[in-house]
């Protein structure tokens, strides 16, 4: 499991389990294989963030195509504000004095929040 990641301290119980379900199985396998080596974990995080970002963009585009034209601007504004929130929130986890653990926490935050938002948009599209 990914319990070696410092960012999992940010998530508790059910929230961590849900976030883990939203990320790919290859991400979990990569982190397990990394064996706690920071550079290997960062590479796993980088690859998963790319994967989740593609998923988020696809979900956003699909939802934009399914909402009434008058609501598209509202969705676009909400998404822009969500991105600003994600970036600011995860940026807070990166404490320059926190070393590699803080960098891991900030990057894991990006993965987790991006996966959660992709799931949210996918769910909205399904309604």
Which features does this protein show?
Substrate Binding Domain Of Dnak, Chain:A, Domain 2; flat; 5 helices; 127 residues; mainly alpha
Explain what the structure shows:
With about 130 residues, the protein is mostly helical. It has one domain (about 5-125): Substrate Binding Domain Of Dnak, Chain:A, Domain 2, CATH 1.20.1270. It is about 80% helix and about 0% strand. The protein has 5 helices and no strands. The chain has helices at about 15-20, 25-35, 40-65, 70-95, 100-125. The protein is flat and about 50 Å long. It starts with 12 loop residues before the first helix and ends with a helix. The model is unreliable at about 1-15 (pLDDT under 50).
Give the number of domains.
1
Would you identify the regions where 5 or more consecutive residues have pLDDT less than 50? Answer: 1-16
Our estimate of the beta-strand percent is: under 5%
Shape: flat
Return the CATH architecture: Up-down Bundle
Q: Enter the CATH topology name.
A: Substrate Binding Domain Of Dnak, Chain:A, Domain 2
Spatial extent as radius of gyration: 15 Å
Largest sheet features: none
């Amino acid at each position: 499991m990914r319990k070696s990641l410092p960012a999992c301290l940010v998530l508790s119980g059910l929230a961590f389990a849900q976030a883990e379900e939203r990320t790919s199985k290859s991400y979990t396998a990569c982190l397990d294989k990394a064996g706690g080596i920071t550079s290997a974990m960062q590479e796993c995080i980088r690859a998963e963030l790319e994967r989740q970002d593609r998923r988020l963009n696809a979900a956003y585009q699909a939802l934009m195509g399914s909402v009434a034209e008058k609501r598209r601007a509202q969705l676009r504004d909400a998404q822009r504000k969500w991105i600003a929130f994600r970036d600011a929130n995860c940026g807070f986890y990166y404490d320059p004095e926190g070393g590699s653990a803080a960098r891991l926490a900030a990057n894991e935050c990006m993965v987790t929040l991006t996966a959660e938002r992709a799931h949210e948009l996918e769910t909205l599209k399904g309604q």
